[in-house]
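INFO  loader      accepted 1 record
INFO  loader      residues=575
INFO  predictor   begin
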Amino acid sequence: MKELYLGNDAVARGLWEAGCAFVSSYPGTPSTEITESVALYPEVYAEWAPNEKVAMESAFGAALSGVRSFCGMKHVGLNVAADPLFTISYTGINAGMVIAVADDPGMHSSQNEQDSRHYAKAAKLPMLEPSDSAEAKDFAKLAYELSEEFDTPVMLRMCTRVSHSRSLIELCERSEKAPRTYEKTPSKYIMMPANAKRRHPFVEERTLKLADWAEKAEINRVDEGREATRGIICNGTCYQYVKEAIGDKYPVLKLGMINPLPEKLIRSFSEKVNELIIIEELDPFIEEYVKSLGIPCKGKELFGLLGEFSSNMVAEKLGEKLPECVAYDDAIPGRPPVMCSGCPHRGIYYVLKKLGLHVLGDIGCYTLGAAQPLNALDTTICMGASVSGLHGFNKAGGSRDGKKAVGVIGDSTFMHSGITGLVNIAYNESDSTVIILDNSITGMTGHQQNPTTGFNLKGDPCTKIDLEALCRAVGIKRVRVVDPYDLKQCEEAVKEEIDIPEPSVIISRRPCALLKYVKHPGPISIDKDKCVGCKACMKIGCPSISLVDGKAEIDRSQCVGCGVCKALCKKDAIG
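INFO  predictor   done
INFO  writer      dumping C-alpha cells
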C-alpha cells in the first residue's frame, strides 16, 4: 500500500519498519517531526533530551546495550553533539545507530547555513541523503543495515524541502530485531589514548570498505540522457530540481551516499560526457572531491554558495527552458515573523527597551524581540550564548556607554545549554542579571515538551524541573518571578536587579498564548472618541493593533485580551 508522507514522517516510518527501539532527540526545525512521528509507534521508546549531545550519547548507550537506536537534530544541533560524534566513530556500535541531521538551506528558521556533509567527512562516518519521502524511508532502513554491517553510526542528511514535502511511500511491516548481546570490550569502547590509537586504523579501513560499497550501491545511480554533451552530478533535493529542469535530456549521476563518494563511478560517468556540471546546495562538497580526482567540472561558478535552489534557477543557469507545467513566475508574498498576539515576551522586551539596556539574546521565539518596533536585542548567536556572553560582556567592563546589560533565554533553551553559563556566572561572581523567559513550552519548533513543563514527549506527566530551585542550587541567591503582562512589576524588578552588584535571575513566567489550555479573557477594543492617535500602543509591536484614519484599531479576530497595550494608553482609550 502506498500513502503520501511528509519526508520527516517517512523517516520515522523507516525507523519503525527497521525495528528501531530507542529514540532520543532535541527538537529543531526542520528535523522535529521525525521524533514526534516515531513517538506515535507504541513499539518505540521515544524522548526529548535536554540537548543534542545528551540525545546522541543516549542513543549510543541504547545501541551499546543491543537495540537499534536513533537521534535526530537540525544542523546547528549537530555542533552541540559533535563531541560524542567524533569518538563514537572510533568505537563503533553494537546494534545499529542512525543519526539524522536536517540542514536548512535558505535559513528559513536558522541562524546559519552550515553544510553538515563536512561533519560526515571529518568524523569519517557514512552519510546517506534522500531526495524524497520514499528514499527518506528506504534510506533510514538501509542506514541500519550499513551500521551493523560496517560497525558504525550512520548519518542521514535531510534538508528543509525534503523534510517538509510530501511524496508517495510504500508501507511495509515492522521487522522486529532481537536485542544483541552486550559484551564488555574495553579495547573497543574505552577511548583512552592507547585504545583510541588502535581504533583509528579500523576507522580508515572501514572508510575504504564503505567506499567500495558505494561503487556498487543502488542508491548511487545513473539516469541515462538523450544527449551526452553534458552530464550532471547532483544529490538530495537538487536531483528533483534537475529532473524538473531537464527531464531526460542529459545523463544524471544521482548520489544517494554522500560520504564516502564513489571514485570509480564518478570517473566512469565523467568519461561519457563532454561537460561535467555539479549541482549541489551550499558548499562545493562534491565539486571539490571531483576536482581532487583531476576531473574538470563546473559547479559553484554557475550556481553559487548561497541559499536554496529551485527548478527555475537550475534551468536558467543551465540555459534550459523550464516546462510550462513546472515553471512559476508569480512572486510569493512575504510573511515576516512576528511575536503572536498575547505573546508573554512582548511585555518584558518593552520594559528592557524603555530602560535602554543592552540585551544579549538567544535562540527561540524571543529572538523576534529584535524586530521593529521593539528592536530590543543586541546579539543572537547560539543556544545558551546569552548567558555565557553576558558574563564575558560584564566581566570585561560592559559597553562603556553607561548602559547596563542583561541576558534573555527561554525555559527550554536554558535547560539545553544555559545552566552551565549560569554556573559560570555564580562561580566567577559576575554582576549579571539573567532573565529566563518561561512560557511553559518549547515554542518556536511547535510546542514540544521540555524538562520544565512536567510532561514527556508522549504527553505523560513526569518530573518537572523547578527553575527557581535550580538557579539557587547553582549559587544564585537572588531569584524572583514576574508576570510579563504586568509592565510595572517587570520594570521594578529589572531596575532593582541590575542595580545590585551580584548575580541574579528574573523568571518572566506566563504560558505561551497559543497553548490550548490557556484561557484568554477575549478581545478588547478602542474607544475612538478617547483615542488621540498618539501611537503609544503601537510601541509594543502587537499584530492585533494598527492605525486606521490616524487612530488605533484592534483586530478582534487576533486579540486575546492580554491587556499589555492598556498600560501604555494615557487616555484610557483601550478597554
